[in-house]
Amino acid sequence: SNPVKEAAEKVTGALRGDSDDARGAIPGRPAPEPPQVDEPTEVRPPLPPKPDQRGPATMSPTGEATGVDQDVVAQRDAYLTTAQGARLYDTDHSLKAGERGPTLLQDHHLREKITHFDHERIPERVVHARGAAAHGVFQGYGTAASITKAAFLGKDVETQVFVRFSTVLGSRGSADTVRDTRGFATKFYTHEGTFDLVGNNIPVFFIQDAIKFPDIIHAGKPHPDREIPQAQSAHDTFWDFVTLHTEATHHTLWNMSDRGIPRSYRMMEGFGVHTFRLVNAEGGTTLAKFHWKPKLGVHSQVWEEAQITGGMDPDFHRRDLADAIEAGAYPQWELGVQVFPDNPEQVFEGIDLLDPTNLVPEELAPVQPIGLLTLNANPTNYFAETEQVAFHPGHLVPGIDITDDPLLTGRLFSYLDTQITRLGGPNFGQLPINRPHAPVNDMLRDGMHQTAVHSGTAPYKPNSLDGGCPFMAGEDVSAYVEVPQAVAAGRKVRQAPASFSDHFSQPRRFWLSMTPVEREHIIAAYTFELNKCYEQAIKERALKVLANIDPQLCQEVATGLGLPAPEPTVPLASVEPSPALSQIGKTWPTDGRIIGIVAGADGDLAGLRAVRQAVLDADMVPLVIAPAGGKLDVGQGEPVTVQRTFATARSIEFDAILLAGTPQAGADAFGARDAKADELSTVTTDPRALLLVSEAYRHGKAIGGWSGALPVLEAAGVPDLAPGVVLGDDGGEVLRTITGLLAKHRVWERFPAVA
Ligand code: HDD
């Protein structure tokens, strides 16, 4: 039997009015009326296939087949060629009339090389320009089967993914560690079509309606006159907008919290933000919010650390992600859902689910795990993959539908539109990174950069010339069918519902859920950012907003600005805190955390070697820091390789610091207290090493040492009995205690807490 012929006959029959089922009738809906055909045309069988129109088999210039895949257009053969495949004998000299003569216009290689170079850049993303990405795999748990029929969530189903993390405001070359929201966009190449979950590391958004997106972005981007500041929210236009437009208060508060300065992409939560509508196999619907939970926990930098990182290593997050994957420490997240009944109001526990400035506390709706994401491969080429990947919240698969959140609806327009400019035409879906892994059989034709060689003569429906192909699918064979959701009747209005007008109770819940340390960081962030504004009126307006969140927050920031704290203009909401919103108080795996081991040329190399191995055995990364590069070798066995020098290392890179110390006859960790000044080690006298230790201390990092490390601490001004400072005679024991401290991420007791 020939399935194409059978299907063609079905369609022919349908045109004659024989049956309904081939016209793509959707269960539960009336079948479309058959076209009125007075005298049915006899349908021709499909045309014979055309000869293969792909490129010819690749041959070497001497006529042998090279055996290289015809679809791969990169780096074939051993010799440098032109774009047309002509081998080149020189690419370093223009063709000239004599060695000192003029360059000739006929030099095709020169013109081709320069012209291509002139066009190498494409417009950067209008937002989220700065990013880093990785390939991976998603494995469904099968736990979501009762709420969604999405096949990729089925038990043990594995789906290839590509994930791009980003900052929002900065240009493509800006620093990774600025205070900003982070993008967390995932492309699932499912066999039912591509699903994109285009989320952020913050569960709420600045605006409730997409029509305001240009406004918030114009306000956050650099000022239009001088184009400064880059990748910052600490400037007048940002604070002008978010204080005039109080629905931005919740997202702004998250940005000012530690969530705005993540430690690593690997240690960020992700959120789909909007409420989605899930559909199960029986057609039952549920409202849901998507969450990504990192296996390594949610961690942040402290503000001073983030600022230093911006200068010392602007690629910090990009490097961290790539290094971890290269080392085999694959980052993992669990995908989870909060689910809510699909009631006509789309409200849960008084929270409007269509308002994207709202979150639902996990204590009210727990996050239920439905699958595991593992990032296990770095991109091969940044431009081809990370830069050209194109996400779209409208890329959905059967089982996942949208709601009428007015922010989401506008996004459904924006993403396709922006890709057409950014990627130069409508065929960006054919780029390898964007190509679905499900078969594509569309009727989209031609356009800039068309790389498909479409066969057939009838790219339209209905047709008889291509035998009626391709056919419409029903839900039984995974057609994407929108939920026939009732549309709220009403007048055409440019208005938000009354339920969108509470802008302060959710921010207040976030504030009340923070620990004292986290509150202190928030106060410092507001104080810093507002002190960077020039306009007095903006600072005063910002304080009025803060007064409506919490009087203590308002008062502390007002003190920092040297202004009086205003009274609230709305009654303070009475809300329960949500402990799940805090990052502090839990312990997390320490896999992949980075331990800096400081050693002078006169340090305890035997101890260092043993501790270095113990760090590796604990699945963490040891980096040896010494006065100069090369090897440490004082004749105590195998030399130790130095990874960082005092000139290149800054505390920001390390999650904890170990001091290998100075062995002195009979000295234990503390006994070196009596050392005379001229016996002090290179570590104790080098200001760069001391800065590293004192910064690590100030940033709440665990510090350990053995074998006479005390003078280093003393010289760096670190009290030896301070919390998280561990001295002992046995480096291995010190490391074990340090690892325990690292599981809490930082030594929080060191931060002066707000009462
Ligand atoms: Fe957006 C990119 C996330 C609202 C318009 N957005 C973009 C990216 C992420 C998000 C992660 C980068 C994707 C990548 O790595 O390539 N955006 C969000 C979230 C939002 C949101 C979580 C709110 C819940 N975005 C939003 C609105 C609009 C846009 C309201 C416009 C009306 N976003 C865009 C865009 C971008 C984009 C202009 C720029 C580059 C791109 O799409 O591909 O279309």
Automatic annotation (TrEMBL):
Bias type Pro residues, positions: 29-50
Binding site for heme: R125, R164, F213, R411, Y415, R422
Domain Catalase core: 81-469
Active-site residue list: H128, N200
Region of interest (Disordered), residue spans: 1-71
Cofactor dependence: heme
Keyword Cell membrane: no
Gene Ontology MF term list: catalase activity; heme binding; metal ion binding
Domain of life (superkingdom): Bacteria
PROSITE patterns in UniProt: CATALASE_1, CATALASE_2, CATALASE_3
GO cellular component: cytosol
Cross-link (3'-histidyl-3-tyrosine (His-Tyr)): H392-Y415
Catalytic activity: 2 H2O2 = O2 + 2 H2O
PANTHER family assigned: CATALASE, CATALASE-B
Protein function: Decomposes hydrogen peroxide into water and oxygen; serves to protect cells from the toxic effects of hydrogen peroxide.
Protein name, as recorded: Catalase
Protein species of origin: Streptomyces candidus
